[in-house]
Design goal:
The protein is α/β, with parallel strands linked by helices and about 350 residues long. Helix content is about 45%, strand content about 15%. Helix 2 runs parallel beside helix 4 and helix 7 runs parallel beside helix 9. The longest helix has 24 residues.
């Protein structure tokens, strides 16, 4: 059985990827996650007794730890999901984003490079590093602009997207300078189960069922391309297994919607599922708030390279995917409560101890 090292595998996209891989049963997963606020051990609960899922609590910036894991488990691929990823948080506190997305990514690259250089011939030839990034590195589109493609110039507009752009450039440099066999993906907005409720869709679902305001920045006409997380995970697997070295692959759902459209769909589903709710119609909870600084107007992804080279297309429509997503949050109140109250963080502290929550470098 092949082994992959997955970083950030307790977060939203990472945990969905790890669960999908273990369900296929072909890959042993070593899962390294620092368990910050968005890294939730409950996301991996169904793998509790799985001997082929090895969870390590730690930081990608801890070079000695990463080198030890590479040496001990000898993975044939590393998939880097680890990142600070929320634009609003990057505006309030950009330093954490520079530390994790730039400095720690550099340290991870150095550890992987040394590991790869020492691999014997066949193992060295087969090794891959997949760096998972975002469409936000490309900046903002006008309504009439064509979607982002792999050659679109980078123009990040937030500390978050700037830090991710920097990490993408580092990965590119390690391919061209050292020959490290890298692959980079830039995805559109993901949604689905297990997403931390600071992001738009889970926030609207949970606020809606509680009768809380549904805040929308500005005029609600900011456009995003929505991608169901399971479709994204399938695409990532294809890139690792069949992608051309040194290449970038854009992954999108071909599903452009304004934030206001998304929220109205969620409200309609909640109206249907809770016909007797005193908050119905849930759209009455919509509240427009002051726009955030540097708010990109539109993102859209051209995934034709993925389709042409790897035969991938998103299978989930927004209508089917958003319904699955809303139902997941309604059917998992324990997960929701743990996240909203921070109880899972108490579990992490008890299980790993205060010292291990501050992993050194």
């Amino acid at each position: 059985m092949k082994t992959w090292l997955v970083t950030g595998g307790a977060g939203f996209i990472g945990s969905n990827f790890v669960l999908a891989e273990r369900k296929l049963g072909k890959t042993r997963v070593v899962n390294l996650d620092r368990l910050t606020y968005a890294g939730n051990p409950l996301n991996l609960e169904e793998l509790r007794d799985d001997p082929h899922h090895i969870f390590i609590h730690g930081d990608i910036g801890n070079s000695s730890l990463v080198r030890q894991l590479l040496r001990d488990h000898r993975p044939s691929a590393v998939l880097n999901f680890a990142a600070e990823s929320h634009v609003d948080r990057s505006i309030v506190g950009p330093e954490d984003f520079i530390q994790t997305n730039v400095v720690s990514t550099f340290r991870l690259l150095e550890a992987i490079r040394h590991y790869w250089e020492e691999l014997p011939g066949a193992e060295k030839e087969a090794f891959r590093l997949l760096h998972v990034s975002t469409d936000e590195v490309y900046g903002s589109l006008k309504p009439e602009d064509a979607p982002f493609h792999e050659a679109t110039p980078y123009a990040p507009n937030s500390p978050y997207s700037a830090s991710k752009a920097a990490s993408d450039h580092l990965v590119r440099a390690y391919f061209h300078t050292f020959g490290l066999p890298t692959l980079t993906t830039n995805c559109s907005n993901n949604y689905g189960p297990k997403q931390f409720p600071e992001k738009l869709i889970p926030l609207m679902v949970l606020n809606g069922i509680s009768g809380k305001p549904l805040p929308i920045y500005g005029d609600g006409q900011n456009v995003r391309d929505w991608l169901y997380v399971e479709d994204h995970c399938k695409a990532l697997r294809l890139v690792v297994e069949r992608g051309r070295l040194g290449e970038v692959y854009n992954i999108g759902g071909k599903c452009e919607k304004t934030n206001l459209e998304v929220i109205r769909v969620i409200c309609s589903i909640l109206d249907e599922l809770f016909p007797d709710s005193c908050y119905k119609p849930h759209a009455s909870l919509v509240t427009f708030v002051k726009d955030r600084a540097g708010h990109d107007r539109r993102y859209a992804i051209d995934s034709s390279k993925m389709e042409r080279e790897l035969g991938w297309q998103a299978q989930e429509t927004f209508e089917s995917g958003i319904r699955k997503t809303v139902r997941w949050y309604l059917e998992h109140p324990g997960w929701v409560e743990s996240v909203q109250t921070g109880a899972y963080r108490e579990w992490v502290r008890r299980h790993y101890g205060e010292q291990k929550l501050n992993t050194g470098h």
